[in-house]
Amino acid sequence: MANSRQQAPAADTEMGEKVEQFDAIIIGAGVTGLYQLYRLRELGLSVQVFEDGSGVGGTWYWNRYPGARFDSESYTYGYSFSEDLLQEWDWKEHFSGQPENERYLNYVADKFNLRGDIQLNAPVSSAVYDDGEDCWEIHIEDGRRARARFRSEERRVG
User: Fold this and answer.
1) CA dihedral defined by 118, 120, 122, 127, rounded to 10 degrees?
2) How many other C-beta atoms are found inside a 10 Å radius of the C-beta of residue 117?
3) What are phi and psi of 97, to 5 degrees?
4) b (16+ CB within 10 A) / e for 52-68
5) In sequence order, what are the residues at sequence separation of 6 or more whose Cβ sits closer than 8 angstroms to the Cβ of residue 21?
6) CB neighbours of 83 closer than 8 A, spacing ≥ 6?
7) pLDDT digits (tens, 9 = 90+) for 84-125
8) How far are the Cα atoms of 53, 56, 81, 105, 136 from residue 28, in angstroms, in the given order?
């Protein structure tokens, strides 16, 4: 699988600020965000994920209350894009709890080397579409900016 760090050089804005350039930006490193990153990399696109939290997992990172677990059979949440992954991971419970779900998503991030394209602790303050440039401009709370033609966002549940 190609590494998506083949981003375009950072562009200068009118005020001389650097803006990172990507083909696609994903907001959130949960179940869907990790899957999108994997698939977009397969297409050879440069991709960046911005994650508010200090770890991957989305809902399973944020929701740590007692009894948090899948409401469907565990295997139905497993990624089916990799036969190896399906064979390697053994769900410990029929309806697995938050700790195992989070472990699984960390395992996936490591197995497919996804972390290099995920910026943790990067809360997005805005995502604005620029009609003139035909792209999205993403602003991170720490002042960084990035642009991409495509943007996807996960919604936190809970």
Assistant:
1) 30
2) 21
3) -90, 170
4) bbebbbbbbbbbeeeeb
5) 7, 8, 9, 10, 11, 46, 146, 147, 148
6) none
7) 999 999 999 999 999 999 999 999 999 999 999 999 999 999
8) 9, 8, 20, 13, 16
Give residue-wise pLDDT tens across range 10-47: 555 555 578 999 999 999 999 999 999 999 999 999 99
Q: Do 37 and 47 meet the contact criterion of CB atoms below 8 Å apart?
A: yes
Summarize the chain as % helix, strand, coil (round to 5): 25, 30, 45
Per the CB < 8 A criterion, the answer to whether 58 and 30 are in contact is yes
Q: What is the DSSP letter of 33?
A: H
Residue 51 near residue 61 (C-beta atoms within 8 A): no
| Cβ neighbours for 119, distance < 8 A, ≥ 6 positions apart | 48, 49, 50, 51, 140
